[in-house]
Amino acid sequence: MHDTDTFARMPALDSTAEQPPFAEILSRYEREFEVVFKTENYLVRDNGAVFRRARPQARRRRLDEVWTFGTLNRHSGYFEINGHVVHRIVATAFHGPGPTAEHVVDHIDTNRLNNRPDNLRWVTRLENILLNPITRARIEIAYGSLEAFFENPGACSIPNWEWMRIVTKEQVEESRTRLLAWAEKGQAGRGGTLGDWLYEPTSEQRPGAGNAPDDFSQGAAKRESHQAPNFTSPGM
Fold this sequence. Notes:
Elements: H1 4-8, H2 22-27, E1 32-37, E2 40-45, E3 50-52, E4 67-72, E5 79-81, E6 84-85, H3 86-95, E7 104-107, E8 120-123, H4 125-130, H5 133-143, H6 146-151, H7 169-185, H8 194-198, E9 215-217, H9 218-222
Antiparallel strand pairs: 1-2, 2-3, 3-4, 4-5, 4-9, 5-6, 7-8
C-alpha cells in the first residue's frame, strides 16, 4: 500500500526543475497529421500541439491558424480548444477515433498536460483504472483500496494535478519510469515536490522563468521575451 505522504513528498532531486523555453517545446516535433474532429479541421503534431484551421467565410477566432497546446482548464487540469479537450483530438489524429462512445483517453503517465500520442491510448473507464498501475496506485492512496473505490467512487478525490506540465520528448520516458517504479514499490519521501522529482533538468535543457500561463499558444511563445513560462506549478 502507498501512503499519501510518500506520493505528495517524493524526493526532490533538484529543487529548480526548470523547463526548456515554451517556444522550443512547441516547435520540436517529428510527425504531423491532419484530422477532422467535431466538424473542425486540425493539424496535429506528435508533441501534443494542435493548429485549428479557420472556418471558410466565418469570423476568425483567437486560436485559429496558430499552433497551441490549448488553453488550460484549471478546474479539470486538461488542455482545451473550442471547448474540446486536446487529448481527444491528438488521440483521434494518431490512433483513430475511439472504438465506442464509451471509450476515454488514458494519459499513460497520468500527466494530463502530456498530450504526446505515445502517452495516449483509448480505453474503457474500467480499463483506465485496471490497466494503468500509476492510476491504480493513486486510487489506492485516496480510497485505501480499489474495492473501496468501486463501492463509492465519489467518496474521495484523487490527489491534485498541479505537478503536471508539458514535457519534452526526452523527459517523457524518465518521468514515466520514475512513476512506474513508485507505483510498483513506493519510495520514502525526503521533502520537495513531485514536480521537482519527476522533471529534474538534464544538461540539454535550458532554464525558463515565470509562472505557468493559461494560454499555451504561439502568441504566448512570442511573449517569452517579456515573461518566459516554465510550467512550474505548486507541488502536491
